[in-house]
Inverse folding.
């Protein structure tokens, strides 16, 4: 299945969660067994030779493929969650996003300096969530941090820069507004 076929599996929902936002719904891609397997395999192929020891998935859609990628790479899986969802001591980061502010948390013992970390989430739009996740992960001083998304929305400007020392990849790139 090529990238156009994968992209065709996405559903777009206008004005969700607020007016003016075009929401890309990946559940229609994930419910297709072949497409889901392809996404996980493609992400694993991108990182198989990078020595990944932990995959960090961002709540909640980053958990879906993130856990499967961790298994495929023989790595551990670490969740980054919304406040109050993790039972032990946490580190937190508050950030701006397209329609408000939010906070992410990670367990204080989730990573170590020997880790090579792949942060995974479903969609890269403005960069706020990704940058907050990177900030949290970097508090552990891991050897290397990578970041991956299933989809990058190309015509939404990054309002929060992703640090230049973090290699960012995405399987698909689409515009929020159709060209033409």
């Amino acid at each position: 299945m090529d990238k156009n076929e994968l992209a065709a599996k996405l559903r777009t929902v206008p004005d969700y969660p607020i007016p003016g936002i075009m929401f890309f719904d990946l559940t229609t891609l994930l419910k297709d067994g072949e497409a889901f397997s392809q996404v996980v395999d493609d992400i694993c192929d991108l990182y198989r030779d990078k020595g990944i020891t932990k995959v960090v998935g961002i709540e909640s859609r980053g958990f879906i493929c993130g856990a499967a990628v961790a298994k495929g790479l023989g790595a551990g899986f670490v969740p980054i969650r919304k406040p109050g969802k993790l039972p032990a001591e946490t580190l937190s980061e508050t950030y701006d996003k397209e329609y408000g502010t939010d906070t992410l948390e990670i367990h204080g013992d989730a990573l170590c300096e020997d880790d090579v970390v792949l942060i995974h989430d479903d969609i890269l739009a403005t960069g706020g969530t990704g940058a907050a996740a990177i900030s949290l992960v970097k508090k552990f001083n891991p050897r290397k941090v990578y970041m991956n998304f299933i989809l990058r929305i190309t015509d939404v400007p990054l309002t929060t820069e992703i640090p230049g020392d973090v290699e960012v990849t995405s399987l698909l790139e689409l515009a929020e507004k159709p060209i033409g």
About this structure: The two ends are 26 Å apart (CA to CA). The chain has a mean pLDDT of 94.
